[in-house]
Specification:
The longest helix is centred in the middle third of the chain and has 16 residues. It is elongated, with a radius of gyration of 23 Å. The protein has nine helices and no strands. The chain folds into two domains: 79 residues; 45 residues, no CATH class. The chain is mainly alpha-helical.
Length: 153
């Protein structure tokens, strides 16, 4: 990968509002360039909390809205990214990994079997509004044995 496409260089151009950066990329570099990375990295900086909040809010308001509907217009996505920085210098940007929604909640297997038409959010809600004692009692009422209960809880 070229130095131009190192994330540190891209974030420097992001902070400096370098609107010519995209046009300076070669054909091969354009194929490798990802505006999505600019969105994810650009929203988070290591700075005082007020400035970090500004970056996050500005990214959400200016870039994140309808970002994927502009997928065929990488240059426009880049130009939107350059509007985020207030022009106060360059900062260390970092990536925040999205939370995994696959975490197993107590009772999720039981509720999914009992209510097969419920979606994941509804099952998650059922798991959260019932405490472990209620879930165990409900499982016993459904005829679950201790092994099944232990596996789900």
């Amino acid at each position: 990968m070229s130095d131009k496409l190192s994330i540190h260089n891209e974030m420097r151009c992001f902070d400096k509002k370098d609107r010519d950066f995209y046009d300076s990329l070669s054909t091969d570099e354009l194929k490798k360039f990802s505006p999505y990375l600019m969105l994810k990295w650009g929203a988070n900086i290591d700075a005082d909390p007020d400035l970090a909040e500004y970056y996050l809010r500005a990214t959400n308001e200016r870039v994140n809205i309808d970002f994927f509907s502009l997928g065929r217009h990488k240059k426009l996505q880049w130009l939107l990214c350059t509007t985020v920085s207030p022009g106060l210098g360059t900062y260390k940007h970092y990536w925040i990994k999205a939370k995994s929604r696959e975490s197993k909640l107590k009772g999720s297997q039981m509720f999914a079997q009992e209510f097969p038409l419920c979606n994941k959010d509804e099952i998650e809600l059922l798991c959260k509004v019932n405490d472990a004692k209620d879930i165990v009692e409900h499982a016993k009422n459904l005829g679950w044995d201790d092994r099944q209960i232990k596996d789900d809880l």
